[in-house]
Every structure is written in structure tokens, then in C-alpha cells.
Amino acid sequence: MTGIRPYADHEDDGIVQVSFTLPLPRGGASRTGALDVARRMGLASGEVVHQTELTAGYTYVVLYGRFEGRIDPYVREGLHRESMSQEEIDVFVAAELGRPIVVVGASTGSDTHSIGIDAMLNVKGFDGDHGLEGYRSFEVHNLGSQIDNADLLAQALEISADAIVVSQTVTQQDLHVHNLTELCEMVEAQGIRSDTVLVCGGPRISEELAKELGYDAGFSKGTRPADLATYLAREMAARAAVQARSEGG
């Protein structure tokens, strides 16, 4: 067997717990509706284990079901292999590129939250994991929060940045989608998209959303600075190898 699956009581049993509210009265209707939800979610052997009437016509339901598939988080496009250590990254970049990777980052638009971008870029990092400023292999320019996309792009052009890193926390009315889309379009209009690694991150960011918006990678909750550093190092090395083959041919 390849891949993994979630479990409850026994490893590999595939049992998951799902809870939600249905706009149905408690009883047969809510039970039938909940089991239909489980079926449409692809959960086998659905079983309603708890129902509570929240108010007239609304029922909170807890059900169990079995996930019969398997996942391998390392084979999906865009998700990356196990991260390297800081020392490994510094050695890798020196060997593959022979120079530091130039990174500029910010929280853009009206987003005032700088915790995320600081955790990734500032030397203090996150939970004992140094940010990119602590690496020999990165030259970091952290612009902070509430930075206009135009100002971020101007700085990237001025320092010939290899990578632009954007953090987005404010997501009301999909403001993060607007900001990220605008920046990507501006980079493309400037004619530097193929030469620039575009990365975004935040609580509502996923790899799928990042790719959909035109970014090379997206990072969400649980990301550590070493994860970002590893991705940038490997991506830059891969691009350098392609460039070398092109010039050699």
C-alpha cells in the first residue's frame, strides 16, 4: 500500500469525524440529510452519532464515516519535499548558485499584519527557526506592512530581486485575492515574470489558490522559515540549471 489516510481508533482505519449544522428539524430528516452529506463527501459507512436541536428547524449533527482513499502529500505538484536545515540550505545555494538569493517581501495593500512576513524574513524567525535574514544564502529586504503593490514592485526592480514574497492576512471580501492578482499582473506587465519567483502566504492561502492566481507557490498555516527557504533554494537552482542548459545548447 502507498500513501496514508486519517484514522481514529486504529492506525489506517480511515475513520473521520465531521460536524455541521443542517437547516432541518431534529429527527429523521436531519439524519437522512446528514448521511447524504457523508455519501456526497465520499465517506463510506456514514453513521450519525449525535444530533442537537439548536433552535426550531436547525440541527447540529456529528457523524462518523470512513475515508477509503489514500493521500501522498509529497507527490502533488507544488508541494515540496522535506525541508533542508539552515546549514544545508546555505551550502546548497553556495554550490548551486554561487551567490545569495535576493528576496523582497511585504504585506501589501491595506493589510497591517506584519507577523507573518516577519516570521519568514526577520532573523528572529518563528519558534526557534531563523527567518531568511539569518541565512548566508539570502539577501533580504523586508518592507513591512501596508505596502502598495507598485512600491513593492519598484523595490524588486531596483534591487533585481530573484523572488517576491507576499503575506496576506486580511481576507474580507476576498481582498487578498485582489491584491495578489494585481501584483501578479503588474509583474507580468513589467516583463519580469519569468525571471521572478512569486510566492504568497497567509491563513487563507493554499497551493491551489496561489497557482490559480499565477504564483509559483503558496504557503499557509504551519509554514516555517526553513520551508520557504528550501523552496526558494530549490526553485532558483532548478531555474539556474535550465538556463545553463539553454546557454550550453
Structural class: alpha/beta
Find the count of extended strands (DSSP E, 2+ residues): 8
Spatial extent as radius of gyration? 23 Å
Share of residues in helices: 25-40%
Give me the number of helical elements: 7
- Given as residue ranges, the uncertain stretches (5+ residues, pLDDT < 50) are 75-79
- What sequence of helices (H) and strands (E) makes up the elements? EHEEHEHEHEHEHEH
Shape: elongated
What is the count of structural domains?
2
The CATH topology of the largest domain: Rossmann fold
Largest sheet: 5 strands, parallel
Distance from N terminus to C terminus (CA atoms, Å) equals: 42 Å
- What is the overall pLDDT average? 91
Can you tell me the CATH class of the largest domain? Answer: Alpha Beta
**Strand content bin:** 15-25%
